[in-house]
Amino acid sequence: MNLKQLSELLDLSQTTISRALNGYPEVSERTRFKVVEAARKHGYKPNSNARKLATGRAGSIGYVLPVGRNVDLDPHFVEFLSGMGEHALSREVDLSLTPAPYEKESEAYRRIAASRSVDGVYLSSMRNDEQRIALVRGLGLPFLAHGRALAPADGYACVDIDNEGAFHAATRLLLQLGHKRLAYLNGDTDYAFAVHRLNGVTRAMSEYGLAAESLRHHSAAMNEENGYRLAMMMFRDSDPATRPTGVLSASMFTTLGIVRALNHLGLKMPDDVSVITHDDVFPFLKPESFSVPLTTTRSSIRAAGARICERLVDIITGVESEPVQEIWPVELIVRASTGPAPAEGKRAHGRAAEPAE
Amino acid sequence: MNLKQLSELLDLSQTTISRALNGYPEVSERTRFKVVEAARKHGYKPNSNARKLATGRAGSIGYVLPVGRNVDLDPHFVEFLSGMGEHALSREVDLSLTPAPYEKESEAYRRIAASRSVDGVYLSSMRNDEQRIALVRGLGLPFLAHGRALAPADGYACVDIDNEGAFHAATRLLLQLGHKRLAYLNGDTDYAFAVHRLNGVTRAMSEYGLAAESLRHHSAAMNEENGYRLAMMMFRDSDPATRPTGVLSASMFTTLGIVRALNHLGLKMPDDVSVITHDDVFPFLKPESFSVPLTTTRSSIRAAGARICERLVDIITGVESEPVQEIWPVELIVRASTGPAPAEGKRAHGRAAEPAE
Fold first, then answer.
1. CB within 8 Å: A97 and B98
2. What residues does the HTH lacI-type domain cover (chains A, B) (predicted)?
3. Order of strands, edge to edge, in the sheet holding A216-219?
C-alpha cells in the first residue's frame, strides 16, 4: 500500500499521514494512533523507510560489540558514544550494536553484511595483526577504523591519535628532567595502540642513549586494581637507588591505582616519582582532580567519536572516496606530577627507603 | 528473487547459499563473495531477514540515547551494555541506539515506532513525572523501564533496585553507630532514583527522631569534581562540633572527590567521618580499591542489563504478558570507611579542627 492509497483509506491528507508517521507535533495523538495502526495493518512503510529503500540505505551505522563474561568495555566508551551520537543525530542515523564474543566476530560481520541492517561499520580496538580489515572489505561493507593495526598498515580509512608521538614526547620530558630509570604500565600489547605507545617510549630512550631493556614494562588491562598491584610490586621493598623514578601510565584508572600505591608507601609525586598519564578527557575523573594534579598526554575520545561518525557517513554516501589515514596530534599538558629526578644522594621519602624508621 | 531462483542462477545449492549468507565457515571466501554480490544485485533477502519479515520482527531492541553538548553518559553504562549485550547475543538481537537531545525525545520514539526499526525499547533514567510511558504505550511500542518513575507508579513493566531500602539501611547503620549529623551527596533529584534514595535516608532519620531538615543534602551530577567541591564546602573551616560525621554518597566517582577533600583537610575515615557509597559494581574502580576500603550499598548494573534484555525480549515475543514490577534487593557491605561517631569531647583530626597548628 502506498501513501495515496492509505490517504484515501483513512480520508486524511497525505501531509497529515506523513506528519503523523514522522512525529510532528501538529497531529493529535488520536489521529496519530489511527494512522500508525492503519500503516502497520496494511504494511505501509512511511517516508523515512521509503527514503531509505529508495536510496538503498538502512540509515544505521554498525559496531560489533565485544561481549563475554571476561570482557569489560572501557569506561571511556561512553564518551566515544556521546561524540558519535551527537554527530549521528545531525545526520539522522542510528547506531546498531551487534554483540559478539571474540571467537564469533567474523560471523557477526558476515551477518551484518548479508542482512544489510547497517550501511557501514566502524572497527575499534585494532589489533597488531588485524584480520577484520580484509574481512569487511571482502564483504563489501563500507568501514572506518578507530585506530590503526600494525599490519596491514595502508589503504584503509582510519582516525587515530598519534600514540607513538604522544608517548615519545612524554618520555622525552622525563628524560629531560633527568630521569633515567623508567617504568611504563601499558595496556594490553595485543592491541596496536599499546605497541605504538611502547615504540614511542623506547624511541625516546634510545635517543637519550638508554637501552629499551632498562624499561620496566608491564602490559595489563587498564584498571585501578592493576595499577595498584603493579606499582606495589615495583615500589614495595625497593631500593631507592634502583627503583624507577619516572612512571608512564596508559590510563587514568591505572593511575588511580598507582597513586594509591605511592600514598600507601609514603612516596611523593613528584619528589620521589614523576608520573605521566594518558587522558582521553573523561568528565567523571579529571587529571586536575588528583591530590597532585597529573601531567598528561591528552586527546578527546568524544571528539574522535564525532569525527568517526562524520567520516563513516561520508564514506557511505561516497563523499569520501579515497581512504584517508587521519592521525591526530596529542597534547602534552604539564601539571604537578612531574619534576626533576631525585638526586642520587638525596634522602628519599617512603618506607622502603627508610627501613630503620 | 527467492532462494530457489538465486540457487539456480548461481548453480549453487540452497544450503551453500544460506551458509554463505549466514557466515558459516564451511564456505570459501570466493564463493561467499559471489553469493553476497549476487544477493545484493538481485535484491535477495537472506534467511535472517526472511525470518524477521515472516515474524514481523526487526530483530533489534531500541534505546533513545541522550545526547547534547552538556550531556554526559554515566560511565556505568558500559557495564549495563555489557550485560545487555551478553543476553542479546544469546537471543540473536541487536541493540539500536537512536540519538536524541532531551527536547526531541518524543519525536525519536515516534520515528522508531513508525519505522518499525526495532521490536521494543527500554527506557532508563526514569524521571519523577515520566511522560515517556504514556508516549510509548500510545505508540504501541513494547517497552520495559530500567527504574521506576514516581508517577505513574503502576501498570508498566520495569526492573529496578530497591533504592529506598538501600539508603534506608545505609542510614540506619550510621544512626546505629551513633551518628547524628548526616550529609547526603545525592544525584540529580529530577530523576526518580535520587528521590527514592532520599526518601530512604529521611525515613531512617525519622525513625531515630531526627528531622529531615537536619540532613545536609546536595543534588548534583555524580562525578569526582562535584564530590570534591561539595565535601570541601561542607568540611573546610567547619566546626567539628557541628559538621557532619556521617556521609552518604550516590556514586563511586562522587566518593573519589569526597576522599580527596578529606585527605586534603587531614580528616580520617572512619575516625572523623564515616562514608557509605552506592556501588553499581564497576571493574575499573572497586570499593576495596580505596586507601580506606568503602562501605557500600551494592547492586550489579551489569546483571540488570542482562535481565532487562531478557525480559524485553520476553515482552516482545509475548512470553511475558502481564507487566511485572521487578524490584531487586540491595546488599549493604560493611568495610573500613564506617565506624562509631566520634565522641563529642574527643580531639578531632583535621586542619579545620586545629587552626592553631
1. no
2. 1-55
3. A216-219, A182-186, A246-249, A274-279, A295-298, A331-333
Q: Residue A88's closest CA among A139, A39, A134, A122? A: A122
Q: What's the order of all strands across the beta sheet hosting B182-186?
A: B216-219, B182-186, B246-249, B274-279, B295-298, B331-333
Q: Which of A110, A113, A119, A150 is nearest to A56 (CA)?
A: A119
Q: Choose among B26, B88, B90, B125: nearest CA to B312.
A: B88
Confidence check: pLDDT of A136 > 50: yes
pLDDT band at B355 (very low <50, low <70, confident <90, very high): very low
List of residues 6+ apart from B44 with CB closer than 8 A = B1, B2, B3, B6, B38
What does the block give as the cell for B115?
Answer: 519505522
Over residues B305-327, the mean pLDDT reads 95
Q: Is A6 helix (H, G, I), strand (E, B) or coil?
A: helix
Closest partner residue to B284 (CB to CB) among A23, A69, A253 is A253
B355 burial (CB, 10 Å; 0-12 / 13-18 / 19+) is exposed
Asked, as a colleague might, if the bond just before B270 is cis with ω within 30 of 0, I would say yes
The confidence score (pLDDT) of residue B116 equals 86
Q: Which residues pair with A184 in a beta bridge?
A: A217, A248
DSSP A133-202: HHHHHHTT--EEEES--SBS-SSS-EEEE-HHHHHHHHHHHHHHTT--SEEEEE--TTBHHHHHHHHHHH
Judged against a pLDDT cut of 50, whether residue A355 lies above it is answered with: no
- Is residue A211 packed enough to be buried (19+ CB in 10 Å), middle (13-18) or exposed (0-12)? exposed
Which of A94, A117, A224, A285 best tests the B interface by mutation, with the highest count of B CBs <10 A?
Answer: A94
Rounded to whole angstroms, the Cα distance separating B277 from B295 reads 7
Which of A68, A67, A69, A49 has the alpha carbon at shortest distance from A59? A49
Is 0.90 exceeded by the ipTM? no
Among A135-149, B3-17, B160-174, the least confident range: B3-17
Which cell is B108 given? 525519536
The pLDDT of residue B256 is above 90: yes
**Looking up cell 638508554, which residue turns up?**
A210
- DSSP-assigned letter for residue B133: H
Q: What is the mean pLDDT of residues B47-59?
A: 62
Give the span between the Cα atoms of A138 and A39, in whole angstroms. Answer: 38
- Which of B96-126 are b and which e, b meaning 16 or more Cβ less than 10 Å from the residue's Cβ? bbbbbbeebbbbbbbbbbbbbbbbbbbbbbb
For the cut 50, the answer to whether the pLDDT of residue B124 exceeds it is yes
Residue of chain B nearest A17, judged by CA positions: B114
**Alpha-carbon span A80 to B115, nearest angstrom:** 26
Phi, psi (degrees; rounded to nearest 5) at A325: -95, 105
pTM exceeding the 0.95 threshold for the entire prediction: no
Classified as helix, coil or strand, A216 is strand
Dihedral sign for Cα A109, A111, A115, A118, please: negative
Determine the average pLDDT of the residues in A182-188. 98
